[in-house]
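Revision sheet: structure tokens.
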Amino acid sequence: MKILSIDVGIKNLAFCLFEKPNDSEHFKITKWDTVNISEQESFKCFFIEKNVLCNKAAKYKKNGECFCLKHSKKQPFQIPSSEQKPTFINKQKIQNLYEIANKHLITYENKIKKLDLANLINEHISTNYFQCIEHTNASDVKLLDIGLNIKLHFDNLFSQEESINYVIIENQISPIATRMKTIQGMLVQYFVMSQVFVDNIEFISASNKLKDCNIKQKTKYSERKKIGISKCLETISSDFRFNEHLHYFNSHKKKDDLSDSFLQGLWFINDRKI
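Predicted:
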């Protein structure tokens, strides 16, 4: 029995795959993470420390490798500021370029042309500095690109799953969330057309995941997020089925989205008595 719970997002689409083996009465988590469907590639830190891959979100890249802020400081390359980018360098007047070149101890001919000096500086920066990883603004991403990225990421994540009994997706309220409603439909279409056999796809009200919290008064969105994190932390700390994921959860940057996908899936399991 497999249940895939999805919390819809663009920068942080969260998923939690629950699985109950045939020889067990208990569900366990086999996949739990967030994915950025605004981009084709997810940049993760490559640094390995004590035989453990960092895998945190990367901020810089160099020579095909990516690093988070912490581990970039352990590399022989420098972290660039806004003044160490070609877009800045190429706009500078010749006198400013002289000052930049002298600051970086770059040797040049006395009567060098502005373009040649700018190229020297850019070459120095390219050799000695990291390249910043630029991220796309989620609101600027075309729906076509989002659809292509869903297929790319989900193929990597779920193509090895022969079948999934239930895919449950948090229902997006239209017209308030028209764009998210469209993405919800794209997710359904992915599983309809994918090689993974899916028995059922259901839309779940966002209110269900916090039903066990006995919230009696009206709460703000940010407050519900905090309640969700607390409930998730309490559950994975005390429930033997999930407590192996405690360290992973505590070290994840998007605890709120992880919590949403987990609590939605757990509510579904309990509600359906699966």
